[in-house]
Design brief:
Helix content is 45%, strand content 15%. The protein has 284 residues and is of the alpha+beta class. It has two domains: 152 residues, Jelly Rolls (Sandwich), CATH 2.60.120; 105 residues, Homeodomain-like (Arc Repressor Mutant, subunit A). Strands 1-8-3-6-9 form a five-stranded antiparallel beta sheet. Strands 2-7-4-5 form a four-stranded antiparallel beta sheet, covered by helices on one side. Helix 3 runs antiparallel to helix 4 and helix 5 crosses helix 7. It is globular, with a radius of gyration of 20 Å. The mean pLDDT is 85.
Length: 284
């Protein structure tokens, strides 16, 4: 069972790590907001659903516009900055952690790849269903000792609706073989800066390298090596946001690169910018 990573003072239920915020409910105090900071790594899953109006979300340095009947989601470990100019009158924000997610009866493929599309548009009928489910969850979380199984049932319904919309957006069915991909993703997260070889990962997962390639390609659209490279560059960008004084050499060594020059070339190849150029953009 995963360990709860949800901040204890944010949970709205005595047995679950979960919180909902809407225009009239669930806002934290200014002191609590200041304590959690303007930007930081998410220790939980975050969702923003906008029915009317618009918002901007900044995740891993990218600004994403969220409009009417759109949902934005972010995953644990991503770097999120507080919303810039929230101008909507009808929205829900939802947060919960892996411990909460593990209690649901199924897996949700759209949550497995942190490099995937993180915004989903809904037709009016699906948006209404989503809004109604958010509202029911909000009502349930107004009382801290409500039955957690009831809350989990509606959370499962909500994520099922989102998962279905995500794969309609991608025009492909939900992929098979989730357990192997989950194992790969978790191994990469746990050993990212060790930069394990593809052969080593395959052995740990009791797969051939060809099978590992097929599983990762099917679920993420890229090869295992490309997945790890992309994940390392995302991690580099997060660390650059957290500490803007880190040198290229220090950053390269932190991420497990023995050659800072190679890291610099790889960073430019993936992002289209040099490390110095990326730091310059941060200061604008």
């Amino acid at each position: 069972m995963p360990i709860s990573t949800f901040p204890a003072d944010l949970s709205q239920n005595t047995e679950l790590s979960i919180r909902i915020v809407s225009p009239e409910f669930g806002h934290v105090s200014p002191d609590s907001a200041a304590q959690h900071g303007v930007a930081g790594r998410l220790p939980y899953y975050f969702f923003l659903f906008v029915m009317k109006g618009s918002s901007k979300e900044v995740i891993d340095g990218d600004t994403i516009e969220v409009g009417e009947r759109e949902l934005f989601f972010a995953l644990p470990h991503q770097l999120r900055q507080l919303s810039m100019g929230f101008h909507t009158a009808d929205y829900y924000k939802l947060g919960f952690d892996d411990e909460c997610l593990s209690r649901l009866p199924r897996k949700f493929p759209f949550l497995l790849n942190p490099l995937s599309q993180q915004k989903i548009s809904f037709p009016s009928d699906a948006a209404l269903r989503l809004s109604n489910t958010f509202r029911i969850l909000s009502d349930l979380l107004r009382t801290a000792d409500n039955d957690p199984e009831l809350i989990l049932a509606y959370l499962n319904s909500l994520l099922t609706e989102i998962n279905a919309a995500y794969f309609v957006l991608d025009k492909k069915p939900a992929p098979q073989g989730l357990d192997q991909f989950v194992g790969f993703k978790l191994f990469v997260e746990d050993h990212l800066t060790d930069q394990p070889s593809i052969t080593e990962i395959a052995e740990k997962l009791a797969l051939s390298t060809d099978s590992l390639y097929r599983v990762v390609k099917e679920h993420s659209g890229v090869s295992p090596k490309e997945f790890i490279t992309d994940r390392l560059i995302v991690e580099a960008r997060r660390r650059m946001y957290n500490n803007r004084k880190t040198s290229v050499k220090e950053l390269a060594y932190e991420l497990g690169f023995n050659d800072p020059g190679y890291f610099s070339r790889l960073f430019k190849k993936v992002t289209g910018k040099t490390v110095a150029g990326f730091y310059q953009d941060l200061s604008l």
